[in-house]
Amino acid sequence: MFFRPLFRILPDDTHFAFMKARYFGLLTSAILSTLSVILFFHPGLNLGIDFSGGIVMEARTPGPADNAKLRTTLAAQGIREPRLQRFGDASQVLIRLEAQPTEAATQQMVTKVRTALEQAQAGTKVLRTDAVGASVSSELFHRGLFALGISLLMILVYIWFRFEWEFAVGAVVTLLLDTTKAIGFLALTRIEFDLVMVGAILTIIGYSTNDKVVVYDRVRENLRKYKSMPLRELIDLSINETLNRTLGTSMTVFLAALPLALFGGATLSGFAWVMLFGIVVGTSSSSFIAAPILLLLGEHRLRRDATVPPAKTPVKAAP
After folding, report:
1. What is the pLDDT of residues 144-197, one digit of tens each?
2. Burial class for 147, CB neighbours closer than 10 Å (0-12, 13-18, 19+)
3. Secondary structure of residue 17 in the 3-state scheme
4. What is the per-residue DSSP string for 198-248?
5. Edge to edge, what strands does the sheet with 92-97 contain?
């Protein structure tokens, strides 16, 4: 016995012609990805301490932090170009300093900052201190990019074995476009790009892949079911048949991540905002990018049997 859900986002029998907007979707995606690549080089990503190296100290002052006075006191201690920003409420401040050549120099710099903070506002407490050397940060950056590349390669292999090569190419190209848009979003919003953001992008890739596999699986089923249906109509049918599931899953994840973005604080909000952006991009790209690429690559190959008239069986003459 099957139970119908009490709520559906859309009716079951939708007939949206997604493939009519295929060129618009591909062009819009190409423009956004190109702009994202430009933003990657200028102004570039706001690299966190994991990738840029340096010292990060989180401090809490007895009252509202006086950044101007803190900056002046730090300069009096011989600390060059300290970057101060509000972190959380008005009494919390984040101090960023350049990477030091040795561990001893790092410890000396941390001591100077503690002394300057106490002089500027008595009672200031240092809550956290992180230090990453330049060589370590460079290694972490390259390993993060390597992880992204390996994940895309494994997805290509998986979809290639599960589906035809047209499906694999369409999925990987779409994932590359989704990833570049996420990078552009990070560059535009100036959210720190660190190891947590690498995890967020990998999560987006995994979520987006799952959404595309759902649509592709229905396309493959319908290819066997509707032998003579044109591929364009078959893809539209497949997207409409999976639309409720796609939107339901996306809305569930979106609503789960939204409170983290709004109330998760500095630690979780960046991750959550990137996830929200990736959910929107990944869901829309399944219908407006991955499916049109599949149509362009497989229009003649996947439907080659439908365009060839069946061979006539010779009729034997009656004896």
Report:
1. 888 888 888 888 888 888 888 888 889 889 999 999 999 999 999 989 888 889
2. middle
3. coil
4. HHHHHHHHHHHHHHHHHHHHHHHHHHHH-SSS-HHHHHHHHHHHHHHHHHH
5. 83-86, 92-97, 54-60, 125-132
* Residue found under tokens 């460079």: 138
Give 91 or 37, the one with higher predicted confidence: 37
Backbone torsions φ then ψ of 11, nearest 5 degrees: -60, 160
Q: How far apart, in whole angstroms, are the C-alpha atoms of residue 116 and residue 248?
A: 53
Beta bridge partners of 130: 56
Q: Which CATH class is domain 54-132?
A: alpha beta
H-helix or E-strand spanning residue 21:
none
- CA-atom Rg of the chain in angstroms: 27
* Alpha carbon distance 82, 71 (integer Å): 7
Written as one string, the DSSP assignment of 87-143 is -SSTTEEEEEEPPPSSHHHHHHHHHHHHHHHHHHSTT-EEEEEEEE-HHHHHHHHHH
> 288-304: per-residue pLDDT in tens?
999 999 999 887 777 65
Nearest to 42 by CA among 188, 244, 214: 188
Residues in the chain: 319
- DSSP assignment string, 36-88: HHHHIIIII-EE-HHHH-EEEEEEE-SSS--HHHHHHHHHHTT--S-EEEE-S
Domain chopping of the chain, boundaries: 18-47+137-304, 54-132
> Reduced to 3 states, what is the DSSP secondary structure of residue 12?
coil
Residue 34 reports pLDDT greater than 70: yes
Alpha-carbon distance of 263 to 24, in angstroms, equals: 36
Cα 164 to Cα 166: distance, rounded to the nearest angstrom: 5
On whether the CB atoms of residues 25 and 281 are closer than 8 A, the answer is no
CATH homologous superfamily of 18-47+137-304: Multidrug efflux transporter AcrB transmembrane domain (1.20.1640.10)
* 291 within 8 A of 22, measured Cβ to Cβ: yes
